[in-house]
Amino acid sequence: MIIRIITATSLLFAATGAIAAPAKPNHATTVVITNSREVPATAVSVGVDGQTVRLATPLPPKAKTTLKLPKMTGCMVAVAATFDDESTAELPDLDVCKDRNVRFTD
User: Fold this and answer.
1) Of all helices (H) and strands (E), which one includes residue 52?
2) Distance of alpha carbon 47 from alpha carbon 31, whole angstroms
3) Fewest CB within 10 angstroms: 13, 20, 57, 66, which?
């Protein structure tokens, strides 16, 4: 009986330790950018750890593309875009570990 209690207690402590351990963030290597607007995005840039990556060509309306990110230490990026109608969009604090999708809408 004592052996069962000790075994159950040790399993309980082991399970509690596994649950309490913080998970490592899943660092993103890409971000998917979708232009759901009716006008093209003339420039899209993503700032990561002091580096900036840009789309090489404008992103047409209703189009989607994948942008490769440089090696990052955290999860936060800043996204900026300008559009053909001279409007802009800025996302200064986007957590790409939680969601790797950026969607520009009207």
Assistant:
1) strand 51-54
2) 12
3) 20
Tens of pLDDT, residues 70-92 = 998 899 999 999 999 999 999 99
| Full set of structural domains in the chain with CATH | 26-104 (2.60.40.2890)
Cα–Cα distance for residue pair 2/14, rounded to 1 Å = 18
**Residue range 6-24, pLDDT digits in tens:** 555 666 666 555 555 556 5
- For β-strands 30-35 and 101-104, DSSP reports them as parallel
Inter-residue contact 19 to 87 (CB < 8 Å): no
Q: What is the pTM of this model?
A: 0.73
Please provide the distance, in angstroms rounded to a whole number, between the alpha carbons at the two ends of the chain: 68
What pairing do the DSSP bridges indicate for beta strands 41-48 and 30-35? unpaired
Eight-class DSSP state of 60: -
